[in-house]
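Student: Hello, beginner here. Can you help me understand the protein record under this note? Any guidance would be welcome.
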Amino acid sequence: METDTAPPPLTAVEARILGCLIEKELTLPDHYPLTLNALVSACNQSTNREPVMRLDEGEVQRALENMKSRGWVFQVTVVGARVQKYRHNLKGKLPRLEKPAAALLAVLLLRGSQTVGELRLRSERLQAFPDLESVEAELSGLIAYPEGPVAACLPAGPGRRVAQYAQLLTGEPGGIAPQEEIISPSSAAQPDNAGDQAWKQRMELEIELLKSQINRLKVRLGVED
């Protein structure tokens, strides 16, 4: 009789911790690894986070202990430091991921499902992508990761005007029930004109992506305009 040995998915808090550790390693390498206090502050940031969380040290510490037992993070002792620090083990868990893919994964962990255009814009602090095609290429690598998909494409449909991408480390998209007290200012009612403008920008980015995909297909098929 076969048993299911698949590792358990990350919880919402664990995903936030992992995303923060990756983000701070890329943006603030001089302050990485992070102390517990620094990690709590990173998790509770009100910017570049969706949803915004209100976590205390105890919640983060318990999540870290669970992640340590499953090999997602390491507790390290830094010479001259009086407190323990924490670093992620993304290279050990997903050894094929390079910096560009890790940057996109961090943004997905920190801000949920997003369009290609949103990912390119929001990942600028971590990794600069020259165009939408380069973002799409890295996302394709996450989707086709040899040991199992790390991300998925969510096609346009009811409640979703354009295709979006989501990370799968917390399980299938849309199947996660939050277990922590979470607030999300961005989920509050927005003025109609602000929502329309954001939608217009996303549509323009998606149109450019579709154009680049069509051009690549034409080249492969030898089709001339």
Observations:
- The chain has a mean pLDDT of 84.
- The CA atoms of residues 33 and 132 lie 31 Å apart.
